[in-house]
Write a structure and sequence with these properties.
This protein is an alpha/beta fold. It has two domains: about 1-180, 3-Layer(aba) Sandwich (Rossmann fold), CATH 3.40.50.970; about 190-320, Rossmann fold (3-Layer(aba) Sandwich). It has eleven helices and 14 strands. Strand 13 (about 250-260), helix 9 (about 265-275) and strand 14 (about 285-290) form a beta-alpha-beta unit. It is globular. The chain starts with a strand and ends in a 6-residue tail after the last helix.
Length: about 325
């Protein structure tokens, strides 16, 4: 069975279910457990749900230590940019310890953070910093686009014996979708074809999946069949599904809210260039944010970020293009 949930509700449901399932799961962060009315406090008490000082270095450092000692901490960081204050723990401590100990030490912790808040939150809260972490050995990166994936990936993240950065897009928080009841897990490293098509492949992440699906609907009216692939996790990255889609369609548009040269899209483009170049009927096209900070002004923000019209125009351009060998 399934029921409709908002994106944020699906994440909270996953955390609740995992805390009920495993007493080693603890949840803490700033602005949490501030009253006895907090639903997590009411259910699990202050031993497992805690308010922390305003120190990201302390929060993440505690998580690494707690994970090494057998707990499964989830750290609520609210904004992905807040991780930058404690980047040593994210990229140099948590991901390396299992390797450096020859597998003797496990670090099962989840760094949960929102990102891409494109609603007038401007330069320090609207960013997509996943390019900084998706290539760090030992670190996994989840980036759901639907309520079902939000629940399934969170449950998988909590159960993983490696550190996971779980990124949820703020612009999806109130989106609703069908979510399977019970123990619904989404495996890491398995992309999902959100829409099947034959003419062009779009690979998009998080909020851009929603934008790409909307563009695909518009393009269908012009007789263009678009396949939309959602990687769901950036580390591990399911290049196989992406390559198979490109082999089928022969064309690829990559949609990413991050700036072009600091995007997951540019990394995926490199994988396609190496493994699927003979199948391309047109050059790969990137639809990304401009290489600038996100402005506060709504008009300027729209100018900087990808949208349905920009995606549709990119698809039409690759449909019209011809490779040199063609």
């Amino acid at each position: 069975m399934a029921r409709e949930m908002m994106f944020g509700e699906a994440i909270a449901t996953a955390i609740m279910e995992e805390m009920q399932r495993d007493s080693d799961v603890v949840f803490y962060g700033q602005n949490m457990a501030m009253t006895e009315r907090d639903p997590y406090v009411k259910k699990f008490g202050h031993d497992r749900v805690r308010l922390t000082p305003i120190s990201e270095t302390a929060e993440l450092g505690i998580a690494v230590g707690a994970a090494m000692m057998g707990l499964r901490p989830i750290v609520e960081l609210y904004m992905a940019e807040f991780m930058l204050v404690a980047f040593d723990e994210v990229v140099n401590e948590a991901p390396r310890l299992r390797y450096m100990s020859g597998g003797q030490v496990k670090v099962p912790c989840v760094f949960k953070a929102g990102f891409g808040f494109a609603a007038g939150w401007a330069g320090q809260h609207s960013n997509c910093i996943y390019h900084m972490i998706m290539g760090i050995p030992g670190l996994k990166v989840a980036i759901p686009s639907t309520s079902a994936d939000a629940k399934g990936l969170m449950k998988s993240a909590i159960r993983d014996n490696n550190p996971v950065v779980y990124l949820h897009h703020y612009m999806l928080s109130l989106d609703k979708g069908e979510v399977p009841d019970g123990d619904h897990l989404v495996p890491f490293g398995v992309a999902d074809v959100k829409r099947a098509g034959t003419d062009v492949t779009i690979v998009a992440t998080a909020w851009m999946v929603k934008k790409s699906l909307a563009a695909a609907e518009l393009l269908a009216k012009d007789g263009i069949s678009v396949e939309v692939v959602d990687p769901r996790t950036l580390a591990p990255l399911d290049t196989k599904t992406i390559i198979e889609s490109v082999k089928k369609t022969g064309r690829l548009v990559l949609v990413d809210q991050a700036p072009r040269h600091a995007s997951a899209a540019i990394i995926i483009a490199g994988e396609v260039a190496e493994h699927a170049f003979p199948y391309l009927k047109a050059p790969v096209k990137l639809v990304t944010a401009l290489d600038t900070s996100v402005p506060y002004s709504e008009t300027m923000e729209r100018y900087v970020l990808p949208d349905e019209d920009k995606i549709a125009q990119a698809v039409k351009s690759v449909m019209a293009a011809k490779t040199a060998k063609a």
